Amino acid sequence: MIEFDSGGHASSALMVAFEGAIAELSKPIAQLQLLVVAVVLVVTGLLVRRMLPRLSSGSNWTRLVRAAAWPFATIVVLILARGVFQLVGYKSAVIGIAVQLACAMFVLRLIEVALRQVFFKSSWLKGAERYIAVSVWAVVALDLVGLLPEVIAWLDSMVVQLGKQKISLWMLINGVLSAAFTIIVSMWIAGLIEDRLMASQRLDTSLRAVLSRVSRALLLFFGVMFAMSLVGLDFTALSVFSGALGVGIGFGMQKIAANYISGFIILLDRSIRIGNMISVGADRGEVKEITTRFTVLRAPTGINVIVPNETLIGSVVQNETFADKNVWIGISVQVSYNCDVEQALQILVEAAAAGGERVLRDPAPTAHLVAFADSGINLQLGLWIFDPLQGSMGIKSDINREIWRRFKDAGIEIPFPQREVRVVGPTPLDVPLEAIARAGAG
Hints:
- The chain is α+β, with helices and mostly antiparallel strands and 442 residues long.
- Among the domains are: 9-157, no CATH class; 327-410, 2-Layer Sandwich (Alpha-Beta Plaits).
- 59% of the residues lie in helices and 13% in strands.
- The protein has helices at 9-25, 28-51, 60-88, 93-118, 125-145, 148-157, 169-199, 205-231, 237-251, 254-269, 309-314, 341-351, 393-410, 433-441, and strands at residues 159-162, 165-168, 277-280, 283-290, 294-298, 304-308, 317-319, 327-335, 366-372, 377-385.
- The strands form 3 sheets. The protein has a 5-stranded antiparallel β-sheet.
- Helix 2 (28-51) packs antiparallel against helix 3 (60-88).
- The longest helix has 31 residues, at 169-199.
């Protein structure tokens, strides 16, 4: 087991590395390499800054290129410069250190993009990025001074006995970092695939959602399996876990499982698609999002209704735009028995034009006599609109106002409920006051 004391091997190694760096920088060839490194940094920075604005912003691929372009270009040019110095016959230690630092910057940029893709709205992300940056630069510094192999050996010497297996601190750190790296990369690749699928116009919206969710689930599953193999866990332990998970789904998670299965059924059979206007129970709205557990409806009032997918599978759903976006609207009105019914029907048909361009001309609006009611004759105007997602309250209001105006001009009366009350027997005026007083007293 290797131990470091404050004035021992670590301090002497640092002093030797520092003195060697000072002696190396005093040479003209090292100063020339420093100048080359500075020129490379400036030139690659200017070239990348000129090229990046041409990329379309917003996608994950663009964010990746924007983040890693400068360190990657710097690494490539520095490697070429180091090869030139070696061909001439000079050592390129300074350029080698610059390549290591550029590689560290490149890794940090990749980690930053991956973390922001996977954990977009996490509040702890900034703090985690800071600790990761410090750790990466610490590893690079240890490697530059030549202490990294000794630190690894020291961590590997710290062993903990867990049952029959011995686990060192280095094995634990290496396993945790490998597992975290594998899972984050899997989720990052899944995000890239999802963005690519959602941007495709050749696939149906529901099919794109299914493929993106299936790819995310598969990549995450294989990432977890690979991470477990890197850590050294036995896959036979999964049999116990899978059995317990099956019992949990069977008893306590059957509703959740039913919603997930129903979500995949809805996405696959495409009976409900994003943009459809549907009604389920007392809720009606436009389908804004379909997930594997629930569906989001936006009601005409602006309220978002979250409907479990199991409800959509087990209930009657009215899909107003399933095969055709045209929707029929009925407007009922009652006229008195004394009016001209044919004239009233003609006015109803003409009043449909108040709906503007939203009212379809084919099929044309029609008016019908529906029933003979107690207070008057029930009429109904039927018309078709092509944009039910815009709502029907406004168009009904415009047409009703036009009907009211046209009926007043034509003298057509819209009746209100009236009742005739007939008193059978003697009226109160024919009864003597003494009898009324006696009845009240009794």
